[in-house]
Amino acid sequence: MVLAEPGWADEQTDTVVALEDVSLTYNPDQGSNALENINLNLNEGEFVCLLGPSGCGKSTLLKIIAGFIAPSAGNVVMDGEPIKGADWHRGVVFQQPPLYPWLTTRENIQFGLRMRKIPENESRKLTEEYLKKVGLQEFGQSKPYELSGGMKQRVAIARALVNKPRVLLMDEPFGALDALTREQMQSLLRNIWWESRCTILFITHDVDEALAMGTRVLVMSRRPGRIVKEFKTAFTYAISGENSNRVRYTTLFLQAREEILELINQQEFSYNI
Ligand SMILES: Nc1ncnc2c1ncn2[C@@H]1O[C@H](COP(=O)(O)OP(=O)(O)O)[C@@H](O)[C@H]1O
Ligand SMILES: [Mg+2]
Questions:
Q1: In a 3-state reduction of DSSP, which class is residue 253?
Q2: In the prediction, which pLDDT does 223 show?
Q3: Sign of the CA dihedral 66, 71, 74, 75?
Q4: Does the Cβ of 27 fall within 6 Å of ligand 1?
Q5: Which strand (E) or helix (H) includes residue 171?
Q6: Ligand with smallest separation from the Cα of 58
Q7: In this predicted model, what pLDDT tens digit does every residue of 236-250 receive, in sequence order?
Q8: Where are the alpha helices (DSSP H) in 67-145?
Q9: C-beta of residue 228 within 8 angstroms of C-beta of residue 219
Q10: Which residue's C-alpha comes closest to atom 5 of ligand 1?
Q11: Are residues 176 and 160 in the same domain?
């Protein structure tokens, strides 16, 4: 279903990550799968938002793509190669960023580059570049406890992006932020995506956020998690282009919002007997 005029990310691009018939069972005694028959392609440059009721398997799906857990059945491939474990080609950002409390902002961002043994002068240059991109130049020497929630999340984003990953996987990254900070972070992320044209999978609870950010919105069913509907969306271009939130009040946006909310509510309250 197409909900707005397409933009550049809707051009036919290569598939970066592909999931084929992926299922996951945490505990066979539980009787139901956490995920069931997931088929999903993440294409180059797309901003895919994943919505669904609590406990439907969103984080599980992200962890499988990250390579933290292996599926019980099915295939997960990146650029045609099976994903066998975590690596820096897939950057991950969580709701509570696990920053090293004893390291400064700069050191937290540089950490992965050092682990990868990138030459020091190059890794310093990259670190400064990403420190600037997320607007934290003045906080390079601060420790995490000195930063606000939004700032910590910016460190986490810079730390993932500094590796120039092919895919950025974000699990409710702005869920713990106040409304104003959340909107600022959405703008920042949209600009980064726009500039770098990286591929993003973004989990959120918030339908407005999904519509304001995504080029594709996927809705999952309650457990066992399946993808029940997919929407092509393009509101993000209007918000970015005019730097305006007006599109959020258009009939098209409100209709899309209502349709998706209804679908999620059906998932929340329908019970399989
Ligand atoms: N490590 C685990 N062991 C057993 N069950 C788990 C584990 N992690 C998640 N689950 C279960 O799998 C289902 C999906 O969880 P999750 O992916 O965290 O959902 P979501 O992110 O959509 O809220 C839930 O029923 C949850 O209780
Ligand atoms: Mg989750």
A1: helix
A2: 84
A3: positive
A4: yes
A5: strand 167-171
A6: 1
A7: 988 876 667 788 899
A8: 105-115, 120-133
A9: yes
A10: 26
A11: no
Considering only CA atoms, which residue is closest to atom 12 of ligand 1?
A: 34
Query: Helices marked H in 89-217 — which ranges?
Result: 105-115, 120-133, 149-161, 179-196, 207-213
2 belongs to a structural domain: no
Distance CA 134, CA 246 (A): 25
* Of 13, 166, 175, 14, nearest in space to 94 by CA: 175
What residues in the chain have per-residue pLDDT under 70? 1-11, 241-243, 268-273
Same domain membership, residue 173 and residue 131 = no
**Cα 169 to Cα 156: distance, rounded to the nearest angstrom:** 12
Instruction: Indicate the top mutation candidate among 60, 206, 218, 264 to test ligand 1's pocket, ranked by most ligand atoms within 8 A of CB.
Output: 60
pLDDT in tens, 16-37: 999 999 999 998 777 778 999 9
Q: Which residues contact 241 (CB under 8 A, 6 or more apart)?
A: none
Q: Which domain holds residue 81?
A: 8-89+167-269
- Tell me, yes or no, whether 85 lies in a domain: yes
